[in-house]
Amino acid sequence: MTRRVLAVDDSKTMRDMVAFTLKQAGYEVVEAVDGSNALTMLAGGPVDCIITDLNMPVMDGIQLIRQVRADPKHRATPILMLTTESDDTKKSAGREAGATGWLVKPFNPEKLVQTVRKVCP
Amino acid sequence: MSELEQFKKTYFEECSDLLSSAETKLISLGEGAAGPDDLNAIFRAVHSIKGGAGAFGFEALVRFAHGFETALDALRNGDLELDRRSHDLVLRGFDMLSDLVRNSRDGTPPDQARAAAIATELDRWRGAAAAPSADPSTALIAAGTAPAGTLRRIVIRFRPTPDLLRKANEPLLLVRELKSLGRLEVIVDRSHLPSLDALDVEAAYLAWTFILETTADDSAVRDVFEFVTDDAQIEFESEIIADAPADPAERRAAGAGSLVPSAANASPTTTPSAAPVERRQGDRRSGERASSIRVDIDRIDRLVNMVGEIVITQAMLSQQVGQLHLDNYTGLAQGLEQMAQHTRELQESVMSIRAQPVKSVFARMPRLVRELATSLGKDVRLEMVGEATEVDKTVIEQLSDPLVHMVRNAIDHGIEMPDARIAKGKPPEGTIILSAEHRSGRIVIEVADDGAGINRERVRQKCIERGLISADQVLDNDEIDNLIFAPGLSTADQVSNISGRGVGMDVVKRNIQELGGRVHIRSTPGQGSCFTLSLPLTLAVLDGMVLRVGADRYVLPLTNIIESLRPQPAAVTSLVNRGDVLMIRGEYVELIYVHGLFSIPDAVTDATRGLVVLVEAEGGEKVGLVVDEILGQQQVVIKSLETNYRQIDGISAATILGDGRVALILDVSGIRQSAQGRRAAIEPNLRLAS
Amino acid sequence: MTAQLDSTPQLPAAPAGGAIGVPDVVHGASEGDATSQYITFTIGTEEYGVDVMAVREIKAWTESTALPNSPEYVRGVVNLRGHIIPIFDLRCRFGQGLTEPTPTHVIIITTINDRVVGILADTVSDILSIRREDIRPVPMMDRDVDREFLSGLVSVQDRMVALLTLERLFDTKAIPAT
Prior knowledge:
The structure holds three protein chains of three kinds.
Chain A lengths: L3 E5 L3 H13 L3 E5 L2 H9 L5 E5 L7 H10 L8 E6 L3 H10 L3 E5 L3 H11 L2
Parallel strand pairs in A: 1-2, 1-3, 3-4, 4-5
Chain B lengths: L2 H28 L5 H21 L2 H18 L7 H23 L5 H15 L9 H7 L9 E9 L1 H5 L4 H9 L2 E8 L17 E8 L3 H7 L7 E9 L7 H7 L19 H12 L1 H4 L6 H26 L7 H25 E3 L1 H4 L2 H12 L3 E6 L4 E3 H22 L3 H6 L6 E10 L2 E8 L6 H10 L11 H5 L23 H10 L3 E7 L3 E9 L4 E9 L2 E6 L3 E5 L6 E4 L3 E6 L2 E7 H4 L13 E6 L5 E6 L1 E9 L13 E6 L5 E5 L1 H15 L8
Parallel strand pairs in B: 6-8, 13-22, 17-19
Antiparallel strand pairs in B: 1-3, 1-4, 2-3, 5-7, 8-9, 9-11, 10-11, 12-13, 12-20, 14-18, 15-16, 16-17, 18-19, 21-22
Helix pairs in contact in B: 1-2, 1-4, 2-3, 3-4, 3-5, 4-5, 13-14, 16-17, 17-21
Chain C lengths: L1 E2 L31 E9 L2 E6 L3 E6 L13 E7 L2 E7 H4 L12 E7 L2 E7 L1 E9 L12 H6 E7 L2 E6 L1 H4 L9
Parallel strand pairs in C: 1-9, 3-11, 6-8
Antiparallel strand pairs in C: 2-3, 2-9, 4-7, 5-6, 7-8, 10-11
């Protein structure tokens, strides 16, 4: 059964890299450009894992995490945050909001796959 | 293109977008016309650039972007203020970032020294660098250094809190991961489990003791708990075992190895919930966001090309229909007529999608002026007019370089040093006015300065020295002024970080001409100069007249055409140094025989038997082109000759006519130059006009 | 139509020490065998080959639009589905006079250094698989100018095919501006 991952980031480059890498690793990937778009995508169908940047326009990552956790369908969906090393405040906020884990940018593709496999094998 | 190359291309396109929009916002910030969403957008721009740079391993860019991002984060959080100095610093930061992006894209070495200098300034602005916060989870992971390879027994006591489950961390996954590292024994502690009726599904009652025998090193094992250390009590013991494992219970009792107490929960920090809400409100306020969508430029280009093809097909249809006798089919003719109109409208609409205000090109100028003026010790003010004037993207892309050169020229050679200006009774601050407007179907851009004007004597001398004109050649003032565009006259421009190259005005002029544009300078000594640059509104389509010379067909842009006529023999005379001329309404107009210039066989050689098309070259000079006949008028799609071949003198591009055959588009100024060149070869004393 | 090359006793032995006369090429070419495919075509009595990877398509001859003040071997340009493609007369490029094209002549559309150009030839002959080791260097000939454009010669059955280096042939930067 192919796992479905939702990649949320306002940077197309990031989305492309994440999608490409995860698809190669056998995941199915859907993309969203910000938190609001992500919720729309989720309404269209469940996913097995969410990867989200924290800094996005319209609705940022933290808000998205909260909204996702508030939805009973996705209470147990692993959520990974994309953070920067200096972003401790955001990271804590993300954790508080219910993020499962995180990936520090810049990351290499292997680390991405490793981390996704960790929470969504 | 490989996937990676495609990603890089996307990335650099994205960088370009982000940088230009950030610059625009920064400039409006400087003018006090920005809101909190602008600061956030500027931060996000650097954040995104950094993210991608990391993915591709652009070290210098990541390093710089990191420091920059940190400072911008502080700015948007309100920890820092934006005054004139720091605004300037941020502008320079974007400059640097932009250059680093360019270095990464082109593979050229970055200016490390400059980057470090600006980074230091940014740090200083931010205040002392914040002490790295202690992240308890890293502490846990960092500890433990027993080398891999040796067999060890690791005992982990694990008691999760409800938070762990809330964050969708799955203990079962942890177990599986541990299992993959070696031999695992799991002992579950059910002591806290209540009776079924008291069970709260969201609470965590179970605890486990994991006994793992593995050759992996400690950190690999700790890594399994990377995401859960904050939300669980974890006790970790590790010991190296040389022999077969003894009774696990005994070992546990012995309690050897490092004991790392569970990490305390990270203290909750105030979530910036205010910021996102504010941002959203801000976004709703700025109407732009709601009424525009982002479309891949490739799609638009394809759309434009397709519409161009429709134009061609429609021309083809018209031509076919024109050859039929349509007395009984008036409906058909009318229908086609309507279609032609609709096609025209469709094309205009589609072209307008790609039309952008020149603002994006103008936006670079204030900084350019500031930096250049400072480096030269001059005081210069820049005024911009008509930034909203729109032009097709194909033209915008070509505008930047010539504009930069003209502005640099104005500051370099035009505006005088402050004391020199005062001595002349001028204000010490020089002014440059950059303006754009639509004029007779073209876009006209002017760079006017109130500087010293062109030093005609000096230019003339230089040209004589370089052998471009002879000492006794008579030239009027306008001609001397425009000598600055003469080839080989370029004064050694210094390579600047902004334009990235030093080229002379002759190259600038040539490049503009290749686009079907014209450039001209007017000057009043002591008072100032004005560059005038005119370009077609789009490089994609033009209205042209189809001509025949011999068996070949050519297209002449309508904007060049004044009129066409078949001259009376009496009106055509031959002058010694100028070939044939046409006398028309009291002036003499030089005749150029297209068949001679292009070596076309079997053409009409007598102007009185063919047709003379009176056209205007750049600078306003009139010439008469001698052709066989006019075949018609139509809109044509401009196709590049240079993509697969090269530029030809006198030809600006190619197009495909209604019958599918290729026709060449004439470049009037080029034709004029070629004709003069030929005459000059025979008559060395011929006047050199632009 | 693909012809495989046998290694015949007349050809020099393969340096790798493969037995002469054993047609190991028959087992199929892979990257490791250093075999390339060439499309061959004729100009008069001579046969030339170009790397198949450079060839995009082959068209019948259609009238081209003349380009003024261009070298003789630049016949003109044609419209290829909306793109302007220059046509080079190869015969003329080799100094053997202008081609008088008829509908049986062909235009070989190739990619040379990111440009798409058409080569006017008499006919297309074949697609050949040629092993790199079978390509021999061009010997000194009268027409030294030709050596520049040839990357090598190869013997196919009883004919000689000259392999072209397209980049040097039609280096548009080298075309003198008139």
